[in-house]
Amino acid sequence: MPAIAVIGGQWGDEGKGKIVDFMAQDADIVVRYAGGGNAGHSVENESGKFALRTIPCGMVNSHTKLSIIGRGTVPELGIVANELAALEARGIDITRLRIDESAHLVMPWHIAEDRLEEEKKRKSNNSIGTTGNGIGPCYADKIRRVGFRAGDLLDFPTFYENFRQRFRERAAFLTRNYRSHFRKCNSCDI
Length: 190
Description:
This protein is an alpha/beta fold. It is about 35% helix and about 15% strand. Strands 1-5-7 form a three-stranded parallel sheet, with no helix packed on it. A two-stranded parallel ribbon has the order 2-6. Strand 3 and strand 4 (about 50) form a beta hairpin. Helix 3 (about 110-125) crosses helix 4 (about 135-145) and helix 3 packs parallel to helix 5. The mean pLDDT is about 90.
């Protein structure tokens, strides 16, 4: 079975969404293989105009049978839920979406750490221009093998207990390392 990959070679804004939507007309499966909800992919087709941050662009193409958020992605479930609700409200069949059980999840502490670290770097003119969506810290947890994966939600009681423990640990870490930035961080929702 032939496969086609669309890979961005820049920082974004190359038009990947439009290309994937065009190519999805002939695809049974569209997989988003990496990245998180940093920006958006703009798509306009027979179904309308859409802006997607995490959901694969093939989802809005009626020819695509299955859209997958792959294991290399770092989805934030709030973004995914909002996108699915918006798509369903516009008549898109959202049952065609799958999330790989190995995809690491962006958690609230990832977003807080991302924004606090960016604020800290901004004060010393070392800002990297992060979007503050927790993507980098989530990937760091993935590499350290301490992150949560989508499959962890299948055993919700265990997930919840582990989440509470990890939340306490990360809150202590953030307080210890970024206390002076809490009130000064304009983009931090903490």
